[in-house]
Amino acid sequence: MKIAIATDSGNVAQHFGRCPAYTLVEIKDGGIIGKELIDNPGHQPGFLPGYLAERGVTCIIAGGMGWRAQELFAAQKIESIVGVTGPVEKVIGDYLSGNLQSGESLCNHEYREEHGEGHHHGDCRREQ
After folding, report:
1. What's the rounded Cα separation, in Å, for the pair 58 and 25?
2. Model pLDDT, residue 106
3. N or C: which end of the chain has fewer CB within 10 A?
4. Comparing C-alpha atoms, which of 33, 23, 26, 15 is closest to residue 90?
5. Alpha-carbon span 15 to 27, nearest angstrom
6. How far apart are CA 95 and CA 89, in angstroms?
7. Which CATH topology does 2-115 take?
8. pTM
């Protein structure tokens, strides 16, 4: 399996689509067999799910992500884990040990047209 972690200066980035980079971690038999840092190719609506799926990603980790983006990733059979904070290396260790703490999306930027309907100021998570 391969996970993508939204990365900003060695920490989990607050917003998945607008982070500077992604840490891609390939995992096999409970251990890391590969890791690379790639630049964010750009925030374009609907682009990242296909881009990361083509790279073999099956799980993404971020501080926050809009609900529409989570739906687009789910359509690619990519699990979204949001509400995660801290150093990327610690998050990887927590993920591998089954101790990763997640929560509500931390995304809190203003409404932007490119996110689509339902994405409003101060609330990137889907109301349940």
Report:
1. 11
2. 65
3. C
4. 23
5. 24
6. 10
7. Nucleotidyltransferase; domain 5 (3.30.420)
8. 0.82
Residue 107 has pLDDT above 90, yes or no: no
Does 113 score more than 80 pLDDT? no
- pLDDT digits over 59-106, tens only? 999 999 988 889 999 999 999 999 999 999 999 999 999 999 888 776
Sorted by sequence, the CB contacts under 8 Å of residue 41 that are 6+ apart come out as 47, 48, 51
Residue-by-residue DSSP string for the chain = -EEEEEEETTEE-SBSTT-SEEEEEEEETTEEEEEEEEE-----TTHHHHHHHHTT--EEE-SB--HHHHHHHHHTT-EEE-S--SBHHHHHHHHHHT-----S----PPP-GGG-TT-BTTB-SPP-
Q: Whole-angstrom Cα distance, residue 40 to residue 20? A: 5
Q: What is the largest CA-CA distance in the chain?
A: 42
Q: Is the dihedral of CA 124, 6, 94, 77 positive or negative?
A: positive
Per-chain mean pLDDT for the chain: 84
